[in-house]
Amino acid sequence: MGKRKERIQNPEPFIPVSDGTESVKSKKRSKAPKKHQKEGNLIESNISSKIMKEALIQLKEVHHEEDNENNTNGSFFNGIEEPPKVEEDDDADIDNFGGFSETQSQYGGYEEEINEEDERIMEAFLSKGQGRQKSLADLVVEKIKEKDASVASDIRPEPKMDKSIIDIYKGVGAHLSKYTVGKIPKAFKHIPSMQRWEEVLYITEPELWSPNAMYQATRIFASNFGVKKAEQFYKLVLLPRVREDIRKNKRLHFALYQSLKKALYKPAAYFKGILFPLCESRTCTLREAVIIGSIIEKVSIPPLHSSVALLKLAGMEYCGTTSYFIKLLVEKKYALPYRVVDALVGHFMKFLHETRIMPVIWHQSLLAFVQRYKNELQKEDKVNLGILLENQRHKLVTPEISRELDHSRNRGEKEDNLMSTYILLFVSFFTLLFFPKG
């Protein structure tokens, strides 16, 4: 059976097959392909996957009108879209989930990075009105109230859909609230392909899911959702749950930590659904930044996504922990476009006349930026940063930043220019030595 799945997922070149029996020639072909053959099959598989997705989209459009006419009110699959292709092994792996052991119940090891003095200084940059993170329930209730203003605010309203669907997904929600290991209900796996997926997910009450259920849900949605839908799930379901767990327990459950790692399967959705809302709220604590940032630090992220993230963070209204995420992304040492480098210079220059004491992490993020991109800075940028360092000083970090700026070339200058200067001095010396004037 395993071989059969392998042939389906990695199609080999066409082999004539008779009535159920394989020829000697076909058996020889079934041997492990060489390296160059593997690469060729991989490319063909990716291309065929894209073609299949486009074909499914076109097929859905062709039959759209027929589906609208033939759909019945009580049909369970009303509003179903063709889901993106998912490998069969992923589903099998999800159903075979063995849970996390008790020794992995919580993520630790970050306490040494959290300093009480730093936390106190950062509080000066947090928003005073620390509101609750907006959740999926808030969004769906708003939609329901828009359609029906008479809905009471003290009860949990139900979306208007077939009662059988509501009953099914209430049962799914009850199962997920107690879930530890084993299979996930098939009805839950259909949610990513539904047009009204948010309302169906709301019925399952995600705020009550067990941590292991949240991990499984993240695996399913990260694999089956596009970027926009995945962003919504991260922002409205995963992020509120993570922040609530950190607030209550001062640490993060290991299953939720693994959920965040799995969410980075889609970097664009992760940044838009986790990192940006967290920083824009201006209520992100140092503990939250260290825990969530540790994932960004460990996982490889495409340079383009990191560049966009830095550009976005540089333009945000400042929250102390924003510096922590900037430092983590800068230390990945990607080659950044000049536009991003200039935006980061502008970000730091905004604090030229800041009267509040800047947290240590702000000085560390500036040092990390200068160490990595000092040769991409313009001459006037270095002059401006020098003025900034006179107003914003740290007894240990600032001298290091000044030293890095002083021992660097400007943007556009090449190391060859420095070598040419040495050659000219060398030639001049020997000219004076062998051909002295007078």
TrEMBL record:
<dbReference type="Pfam" id="PF05291">
    <property type="entry name" value="Bystin"/>
</dbReference>
<feature type="region of interest" description="Disordered">
    <location>
        <begin position="1"/>
        <end position="46"/>
    </location>
</feature>
<feature type="region of interest" description="Disordered">
    <location>
        <begin position="63"/>
        <end position="111"/>
    </location>
</feature>
<keyword id="KW-0472">Membrane</keyword>
<keyword id="KW-1133">Transmembrane helix</keyword>
<comment type="similarity">
    <text>Belongs to the bystin family.</text>
</comment>
<feature type="transmembrane region" description="Helical">
    <location>
        <begin position="418"/>
        <end position="435"/>
    </location>
</feature>
<feature type="compositionally biased region" description="Basic residues">
    <location>
        <begin position="26"/>
        <end position="37"/>
    </location>
</feature>
<dbReference type="GO" id="GO:0030515">
    <property type="term" value="F:snoRNA binding"/>
</dbReference>
<dbReference type="GO" id="GO:0005737">
    <property type="term" value="C:cytoplasm"/>
</dbReference>
<keyword id="KW-0539">Nucleus</keyword>
<keyword id="KW-0690">Ribosome biogenesis</keyword>
<dbReference type="GO" id="GO:0030688">
    <property type="term" value="C:preribosome, small subunit precursor"/>
</dbReference>
<protein>
    <recommendedName>
        <fullName>Bystin</fullName>
    </recommendedName>
</protein>
<dbReference type="GO" id="GO:0005730">
    <property type="term" value="C:nucleolus"/>
</dbReference>
<keyword id="KW-0812">Transmembrane</keyword>
<dbReference type="GO" id="GO:0006364">
    <property type="term" value="P:rRNA processing"/>
</dbReference>
<dbReference type="InterPro" id="IPR007955">
    <property type="entry name" value="Bystin"/>
</dbReference>
